[in-house]
């Protein structure tokens, strides 16, 4: 399925957002997550491919080339986990991350969910614009964290 989300201001600059997984430049996404991100450093390529396969993915493209990316892990009924959100350095400071999150939050299949979740150490200002707040009752939440290791 090819779905393009366009905004006139960004379209004039050559930017589009698409959920078409065929457009994803896997090398660019993998290199960013593995080498530049703080949250997925060391992710095995096979794990990323499987994650993309089982997620709703949003790519930002500049004249057809990958400029940003995000994944949503969801059942499209009650819950969504927003993750792996990034804009490449050369495309930052233009409002693309805000446009990306806005597009995701307005996505038809993600309306009416009971709960959204995400984790960030440095983008609270971005996400708070869309209603994200620190987790209520964090003592109720539990998790398992297994860092990636390269064999």
TrEMBL record:
Top-rank lineage group of the source organism:
Bacteria
Q: Which InterPro entries match?
A: Acetyltransferase_Butenolide (IPR053144), Acyl_CoA_acyltransferase (IPR016181), GNAT_dom (IPR000182)
Where would I find the N-acetyltransferase domain in this sequence?
15-151
What SUPFAM superfamilies does the record tag this protein with?
A: Acyl-CoA N-acyltransferases (Nat)
Name this polypeptide is given: GNAT family N-acetyltransferase
Q: Which organism is this entry from?
A: Mucilaginibacter gynuensis
């Amino acid at each position: 399925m090819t779905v393009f989300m366009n905004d006139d201001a960004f379209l004039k600059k050559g930017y589009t957002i698409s959920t078409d997984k065929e457009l994803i430049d896997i090398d660019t996404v993998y290199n960013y997550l593995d080498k530049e991100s703080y949250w997925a450093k060391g992710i095995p390529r096979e794990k990323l491919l499987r994650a993309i396969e089982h997620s709703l993915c949003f790519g930002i493209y500049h004249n057809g080339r990958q400029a940003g990316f995000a994944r949503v892990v969801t059942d499209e009924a009650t819950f969504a986990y927003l993750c792996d959100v990034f804009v490449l350095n050369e495309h930052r400071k233009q409002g693309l991350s805000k446009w990306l999150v806005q597009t995701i939050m307005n996505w038809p299949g993600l309306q009416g969910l009971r709960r959204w979740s995400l984790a960030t150490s440095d983008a609270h200002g971005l996400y708070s614009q869309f209603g994200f707040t620190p987790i209520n009752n964090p003592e109720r939440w539990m998790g398992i964290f297994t860092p990636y290791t390269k064999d």
